[in-house]
Write a structure and sequence with these properties.
Blueprint (H helix, E strand, L loop, with lengths): L11 H35 E2 L2 E2 L2 H7 L2 H34 E2 L3 H13 L2 H12 L14 H24 L5 H8 L4 H29 L3 H6 L7 H10 L4 H35 L7 E2 L6 H26 L10 H4 L14 H30 L6 H13 L8 H11 L16 H24 L2 H9 L4 H30 L4 H4 L7 H9 L4 H29 L7
Parallel strand pairs: 3-4
Antiparallel strand pairs: 1-2
Helix pairs in contact: 1-11, 1-14, 1-16, 2-11, 3-6, 3-8, 3-12, 4-6, 4-22, 5-6, 5-12, 5-21, 5-22, 6-8, 7-8, 8-11, 10-11, 12-22, 14-15, 14-17, 14-19, 17-19, 18-19, 19-22, 21-22
Length: 564
């Protein structure tokens, strides 16, 4: 028998080059399609005739309107975050700590609102709260309360999945010991379970605060006349007044506000991963006891029925009604038209085709770029400098979550006429919209894939490399089998997020290539019952497509639900 031939590992230089490319490609993408447009727009607000000019800062902060907008933004974010936590923690317990029939389906269902287009959410709550809606008697249509409810609808899944992902991995014996020593269920939760959940709750709060502070489409649709936040004011100053200096100052203010949320999320995420490392396998949980778990079950049921299901059900019902209240399919038949006079340049079905094509390309870009980022950041270098560099890279790719999509979209218009000196005008290309959508979706892809890659025992990779497997073969045999299902969920998130992206797309989509969110917003802004009915029907179509994508992705992922 011939002795086995020893395998040779890849040369160190080759490894450095490969990992350099894996990190360099995403960084180049981020630099060209995010950092450059954003800095170019901000630069126009702070540079005059080639020199630094800070007069715009004093001018913007000298207006009482700026402070009012900042107060509304912070108030909206704080109230939305607190409400999401109060309602979401009981849901995390029921859906991740208890077992019952249909739990997987319900997990997927509560995730759908998070990826619904913000314009659809706004239309759904208008249908619910406006005159003629089921909750019109509350009198909160176009109020601060209506906006907060819509934000909780959108962010409920963030709390449920982030807190629930940790809760299902907590060792139940500590709480059981406290109960055996005489502690009541409430005291055992307060003294044992709640402190253990604090990292996940803080992380969820940071992310929800970020999403509430940068809400755009929902505020535009639900906000009363004169109501505005920093995000919507950037849009107004850019599109209506062409005041790039004020828009740039406000963009920096918004970035400072959300930077704190990103830093807090990064720190608590690291603490959370350490906690998960103590008990890597999810605990099976116990059967749901309707008597012992009456309070969290009742809260979860009320939220799912009244806050999540009722707005969507109302949207569907109103889309099937004519202006006189009779049942009809005319709103859906009208989707093959361009609406009333001067309403649209394309039919809704043509816009749906535009949305699907753009979202497919955006999802492909986001998964490739985000997958490379997750792959690089998931490594565990021994050197402290290497670990810090990877954490910095992870934080850098979260920045698109904290920068106004309006800023990104308008930055595209002023920078990508001849990018890098190339003789091509990307502003007239069909690639601009999917690229902008991919920039928004990349952070979500990273957050879905990264925890799974980090959970892989590094000794498996080391053993494969010792046996001579190159980096490509290590990825194919060790990483890829583990990450396939989460990668399917990442594709679903990227596709659904791109379908509903509105802020940047509203700048970049030409009239003949308008996407569904853009068309819906235009229909809402046009007078006439026909246009509003078409907006309702188009919102149902977009919500149905998005929900189908997410439910399929959740089913592909299976029971190993973790975090967003």
């Amino acid at each position: 028998m011939r002795p086995a031939r020893a395998h040779r590992s890849w040369p160190p230089v080759a490894r450095v080059v490969l990992w350099g490319l894996a990190a360099g490609v995403p960084l180049a993408f981020l630099a060209i399609f995010f950092a450059w447009p954003v800095l170019a727009l901000v630069g126009r607000g702070f540079v005059t005739d080639g020199s630094l000019d800070l007069s715009g800062v004093a001018e913007v902060f000298g207006e009482s309107r700026t402070w009012r907008l900042l107060g509304i933004t912070l108030g909206q974010a704080v109230v939305g975050t607190v409400a999401s936590l109060v309602l979401g923690v009981p849901g995390a317990y029921v859906l991740y700590r208890c077992q019952f029939r249909g739990r997987t389906f319900l997990r997927g269902l509560v995730t759908v609102p998070f990826v619904l287009p913000t314009v659809v959410v706004g239309v759904a709550f208008r249908a619910l709260l406006a005159p003629g809606g089921p909750l019109a008697f509350l009198g909160i249509d176009q109020t601060f309360t209506a906006i907060v409810l819509a934000l909780v609808f959108f962010n409920y899944a963030v709390v449920v999945r982030t807190v629930g992902g940790l809760w299902e991995r907590l060792d139940p014996r500590a709480e059981q010991a406290a109960r055996a020593l005489g502690a009541s269920p409430a005291r055992a939760f307060r003294t044992v379970t709640l402190p253990a959940l604090t990292p996940a709750i803080t992380s969820a709060a940071s992310l929800v605060f970020l999403y509430c502070a940068t809400a755009f489409g929902t505020v535009l649709v639900l906000g009363p006349p004169g109501y505005g936040t920093i995000e919507t004011e950037i849009y107004v100053q850019t599109t209506q007044f062409l005041d790039l200096r004020s828009a740039a100052v406000l963009s920096v203010v918004q970035l400072v506000v959300v930077a704190g949320a990103l830093v807090a999320a990064d720190r608590t995420r690291a603490r959370r991963e350490n906690a998960l490392g103590l008990l890597p396998e999810a605990h099976g949980g116990r059967r749901l006891n309707l008597r012992a778990d009456a309070v969290p079950t009742a809260v979860t049921a009320a939220v799912v029925i009244l806050l999540l299901a009722l707005p969507v059900a109302t949207l569907v019902t109103r889309s099937l009604h004519a202006a006189d209240g009779t049942w009809t399919l005319d709103n859906y038949r009208n989707l093959a038209t361009t609406g009333g006079p001067n309403a649209l340049s394309v039919t809704v079905w043509e816009a749906a085709g535009n949305s699907l094509r753009a979202a497919a390309l955006a999802a492909l870009i986001a998964v490739v770029v985000g997958g490379l980022v997750a792959l690089v950041v998931s490594r565990r270098p021994r050197a402290r400098v290497g670990r810090r560099a990877l954490r910095t890279l992870d934080s850098v790719f979260m920045l698109p979550l904290g920068v106004s999509a309006v800023t990104v979209g308008f930055g595209f218009l002023i920078t990508l006429d001849r990018p890098l000196g190339l003789d091509v005008d990307l502003r007239t290309s069909g690639l601009l919209v999917p690229i902008a959508q991919a920039v928004v979706a990349i952070p979500l892809v990273v957050r879905v894939v990264l925890p799974v890659l980090r959970a892989i025992d590094p000794r498996l990779r080391e053993a494969a490399a010792t046996l001579g497997a190159g980096p490509g073969r290590v990825l194919a045999t060790v990483d890829l089998p583990v990450v396939l299902r989460p990668l399917g969920l990442a594709v679903g998130f990227a596709f659904a997020t791109s379908l509903g992206e509105f802020g940047a797309t509203s700048f970049l989509a030409r009239p003949d290539t308008a996407t569904l969110p853009v068309v819906i917003f235009r229909l809402i802004g046009k007078p006439g019952a026909e246009n509003y009915g078409m907006a309702l029907a188009a919102s149902v179509v977009l919500a149905l497509v998005t929900a189908t994508v997410m439910l399929l992705a959740e089913r592909l992922r299976g029971e190993s639900a973790g975090e967003l």
